[in-house]
Amino acid sequence: MPTVEILDGPPEWAGAVYEEAEDMVTSEIGLTHPRWRGTPLSRGLYAYRKVETVGDRHRYRYQGPWGHWRYHGEDLTGWDVLAVQPELESTDPRKLWGSPVRVYAAPPGTPRPDPARPPEEQGWQELTEGGWLRRHRPGAGAYLQEALAARMREGDPWVVEHWRRLASKQAAAKDTEAELVEDDHLRRGRLAGAARALRRLRPDAVRSWTSDPPFAGRTTYIPMVGQDLAAIPGMIDPEWVAMQDRVLLVVHPEPESEDAPVFGSARVYGAPPATPPPDPSVAPEQQGWTELAPTDFLVAWLLHIRTADVVYG
Fold it and tell me: Could you state, in order of their start, the residue ranges of all structural domains in the chain?
């Protein structure tokens, strides 16, 4: 078995030596943070290119960001990559895999930022999922706030929370908040997609119902525990999927079609196993359900199920 030697690069892998299967020793490899190995976060963050082979030792040097940050976005060859995850050192896998990850990049030699200050204030620029540097758009906050206000005037209840977030900010802070709101819309739309994916995966177990228009909402009751879902043939990362330990409930705006985006807030609730579906005429909070925080493990679990359905469904 050949030995892979990392000569330089970000501190997560600089100087590392490990064994790899013969067919995995290629001209370029992608490595993630060591704490993420074996998890759904095991996508490559750092790209390395082979520079020489000495006996059974394959030596690599750092190239820059990897994966969709490298191939589908901007040319950041040689740039340093910084991954910020609040629970990175946690020994609890639910905290580690459930906490959000933000990825930043900076020209070579930029010092690692002071954790007490935002990376953006210290020369680091956030990377979007498309692999592009996040660029501030002056006036975006005011524009989005007015768009949400128009929907509120039509009686749309799903956008009130985000409108309030924007209304509490001014000037550049409003534009920054608009970026976070747009990220939130994207994430909550994916949660709604995960609920639809679970209905496709387990039509015999998942129950769903729709409230009345004009702004209809769909509620999806997800009773199966993780071991049940992990047993589906072809399920990606079954060990990770099996870690679900609560009954779930997802409430979100009803899209015009199965593939349409969801503009607004998706609410995710959890309850102890064997909790029956709630009465649709009564608020979930009044029936033993607790709304989950965005950092809850089950939120990341749901988003992973959506990916699993796309790959194997």
Answer: 3-126, 187-312
Q: For the chain, which ranges sit under pLDDT 50?
A: none
Q: Which of 6, 8, 5 is nearest to 56 (CA)?
A: 5
pLDDT digits (tens, 9 = 90+) for 3-49: 999 999 888 899 999 998 888 899 999 998 888 887 877 778 899 99
Show the DSSP H helices in 18-91 as ranges: 68-71
State the pairing for strand pair 217-222/207-210. antiparallel
- Please report the sign of the dihedral spanned by the C-alpha atoms of residue 106, residue 111, residue 115, residue 120: negative
Closest CA relative to residue 306, chosen from 183, 182, 186, 198: 198
Q: Where on the phi/psi map is residue 175: left (φ > 0), alpha (ψ -120 to 50), or beta?
A: alpha
User: Cα separations (Å) of 241 from 36, 231, 308?
Assistant: 16, 9, 10
- pTM value is 0.82
**What is the amino acid identity at position 231?**
A
Is 46:31 a contact under the CB 8 Å cutoff?
yes
As a whole number of angstroms, the distance between CA 168 and CA 141 comes to 11
Query: What's the Rg (C-alpha) of the chain?
Result: 22
